[in-house]
Amino acid sequence: MKKILIIADPLANFNIAGDSTYLLMLTAKDMGFQLSYCAPGEIYARENQAFANVCELELAHGVSEIYSTKDWFQVVERLNTVNLTHFDAILVRNDPPFNLEYYYLTQILELAERSGVKVLNKPSALRNFNEKLTILNFPELITPTLVSKNKQVILDFILEHGVCVAKPIDMMAGRGVFRIANDDPNQGAILESLTDYFTQTIMVQKFIPEVIHGDKRIFIIDGKIVDHCLYRIPQNGQIRGNLAVGGRGEVHPLNAEDYRIAEEVAKWLKQNEILIAGIDVIGTCLTEVNITSPTAMQQIYQQAGVNVAELILQTI
Question: Taking the domain 210-313, which CATH number applies?
Fold first, then answer.
């Protein structure tokens, strides 16, 4: 029986109606894996070895009872000072922000990887490829994009393109995303807030009008493109379709343009040994390449019967 360690935010806080890590764990149970869990703060290093304080888990049910409201996990045993080489694989599922603590975590997990443990995704990839900035590797697939903290450079870019979207580089779930027009009276206040008075680098992009129809989350697992995606459709005049901020989710098969974009990204992912990615597309533009803890697996499973979690676990 293969042993998996899940590194995630507190299990008690999971929104089991839509959480992708929840689906991963239920699927792992069905596939016969032995599950352990720990929070990021329970990972540590001594000399050149990585350890963790972990909880061995027993799950109450598998995927067939995914809608069950009963208590879904039980801690069987708490174990301290477990060498990470005890596990066959480690799934890194804690959410951004990507900060120094996250950076340190990847450094420690790399010690386990060097000892033969499979870490998904690779610690070096998590460290090197920011989810917002990675799109800069695909200039032909993106809307005009600026990354800067320079006030005049940002203002000139907005003047050039008229209507833009500005967002922080290290956040998730649509947090801190603003639509800014050149004549917006709040332009200065928004930019000062996002950049902390032009001391923090942000991303500014030409506005993509197709966002009103939603953005698409497309999964690429071990270079293979999942044939259904989640449309996240903004509500009530919003530009953010993220489910965490009230967007509506609809699952549809990929179209030819989706495949064209995904195939280009899939080649790059294979070259960089990134097994799990959820790319975001608006219209015909790539907007993000999520490799930390991409979500939307459960919605795709619920509406299309495609279990992305199973595809991930088959790589272990």
Answer: 3.30.470.20
Q: What is the pLDDT of residues 15-65, one digit of tens each?
A: 898 999 999 999 999 999 999 999 999 999 999 999 999 999 999 999 999
Max alpha carbon distance in the chain (Å)? 61
- Give catalytic status of residue 192 as yes or no: no
Q: Give the active site residue among 29, 206, 216, 217.
A: 217
Would you tell me the crossing angle of helices 20-30 and 297-304 to the nearest 10 degrees? 70
- Marked catalytic residue, from 121, 242, 290, 307: 290
Q: What is the 3-state secondary structure (H, E, C) of 232-245?
A: EECCCCCCCCCHHH
Residue of 167, 216, 307, 310 with catalytic role: 167
Q: Give the mean model confidence (pLDDT) for residues 163-190.
A: 87
Q: For residue 175, what pLDDT is reported?
A: 76
Residue 222 annotated in active site: no
The 10s digit of each residue's pLDDT in 110-128 is 999 999 999 999 999 999 9
- Catalytic status, residue 93: no
CATH classification for the domain delimited by 3-121, as one of 3.40.50.20, 3.40.50.300, 3.40.1050.10, 3.10.100.10: 3.40.50.20
Q: Look up tokens 């919003």; give the residue.
A: 238
Class of domain 144-207 as given by CATH: alpha beta
- Annotation marks residue 217 as catalytic: yes
- pTM (predicted TM-score): 0.93
- Measured in whole angstroms, the distance separating CA 153 from the mean position of its chain's CA atoms is 29
Tell me: pLDDT of 240 over 90. Answer: no
Q: Is 132 a catalytic residue?
A: yes
Q: Decide if 122 is catalytic.
A: no
Q: Choosing from 240, 258, 307, 310, which is the catalytic residue?
A: 240
10 Å CB burial of residue 244 (0-12, 13-18, 19+) is: middle
Among this protein's residues, is 272 annotated catalytic? no
